[in-house]
User: What shape does this take?
Amino acid sequence: MCGIIGYSGHENAADKLIHALTSLEYRGYDSAGVTLFAENGTVTLKKQGRLKNLQQLLADNPIASVCGIGHTRWATHGKPSDDNAHPHVSGKVSLVHNGIIENYADIRRDLERDGAVFLSDTDTESAVKLLDDAYRQTGEPLSAIRQTCEQLTGSYAFAIVFADINGKVFGVRRGSPLIAAYGQDGNFVASDITAVLWDTRRYISLDENEIAAVTNDGIVVTDFDGKAVAKETKTAEWDSESAEKGGFPHFMLKEIHEEAESVGRTVAAHIKDGLPDFQSCGLSRQFLSKLKSVTIAACGTAMHAGLVGKTVTERLAGIPVRVEVASEFRYGSVFLEEGDLFVAVSQSGETADTLAALDIAKQHGARTLGIVNAAGSALSREADGVFLTMAGPEISVASTKAYGVQLAALYLLAIATAEAKGKLSSEDARLFTQTLLTEIPSKISEVVSRESEIRTLASDFMNAKSVFFIGRGLDCALSYEGSLKLKEISYIHSESYAAGEMKHGTISLIEENTPVVAVATQPELFTKTISNIREVKARGANVLLICPANFPNADIADTVFNIPATSELFTPFTAVTALQLFAYHMAELRGRDIDKPRNLAKSVTVE
Ligand code: M6R
Assistant: This one.
């Protein structure tokens, strides 16, 4: 999603803004722009495409400035183009935006009727024109901003400058994330802290309906009643090194290499006396012991982690678990009532669909738990209890280590629930917890150490037009993730199927040499999966089998990757690492832009 930055300080603002926008590249974007205070008012430069295009424009038009705003745009309203790029300007107002203004068309129609001329197809331009009108009427920025926001529906965050108020940047949060940060030689507003970690770790999170006024010597926050708000200054746990590539060619590869440690760290932070600790997340043992069902809502990779969590919880705790695609949650019937547990899973904690599902769950009186990687995010603030995963910043758009820690959180929840319900003895619960703490991270590392083996397997498939993933049970849940990873970064069409479901239609797509990745890690399902592998082999498929060494008949596959031996309950951790590396190398062999795949955004803050 769009990246926002604003700076007011004593150093070259263009450099600061570009540095921050580079750090925000991971969010995904298709154009970029800045507004800088120059000698006589402001200058706006913007360009479609990568940041280097904007940098060239700045090099051709150098502007000595110590204050400005910048933006990377991920198109929603209007195609990627110079005109649609932000900042948008009207009169003295220059504004950048993340989110969606839902009533923009009505505003635009009214303004056009009154003679306004629009230069872009964006929803943002309606906001800037309204603000321009309000500022002309009031002559006072804060009341103009408030007045404008009262007329806008949707969710948004803005950074704004007024050409006649040199040195001041305003940041507004209404539904989309925004922070303000205290830098070394000036201050910032930004979409998230990773934008400025190279300069500072000291920041404040803006809450809904707050406006930050940022100058070179301070940050003043007011609410929509105009009252000053005292904000707590936080220190980001993440440092700049953890948000940099550290010698790896891509963030994605670095983050896969960090997966083992992230899982261990996450488990260690949530154990008490050798057992999972959910008391600190607001879930008492007594609450868990009475639990009748769990609902998990999430998107993409986080939702796939939920699918694994479902199987594990149902198996260990013996209660039903529903996994909901968060964007669909509001359209179905909601079977939640007081005493039910609703779990929202999200790396960023800012995914609009997941937050909307959380809101519905709260309206139905469910107890809500957020499993979230970003401290201070909307999910971490809005859920009743928070399980903070410890993956550190995940910069690559393709989620990898965050999936590992989400699995760890869901496994711990399953173990805790099963133990509280007496379905699992305390000894077994301790044993499982210990396995997650030590054995699993070391087995994940073992898979990572065999990366070159996986690269060779990937080279066999690199020219594929379409790749199928099949598996049963836990392996089916895993296959969804393997397939998503491959398609999002390699752009190869891919589908994932319950292995037994292929023969009900999709097998018609299998022809000579069609690649099929068969995931088979569950001994009780080996025989059935072998049959499904035979079915696709009989139609010419080229099968890569991911299985433990005790898989019988591995020779039916064309190639095999053996995951290390672990208890079958824990195989998703190691199998997914193999699938992530497979996707990574397929994409890398095809020369893709791995960390910033086309059309995708890291943090999807629109519904
Ligand atoms: O930040 P979240 O975990 O809520 O994000 C959810 C999805 O948008 C995310 O997992 C997405 O599917 C990733 N690009 C997958 O790699």
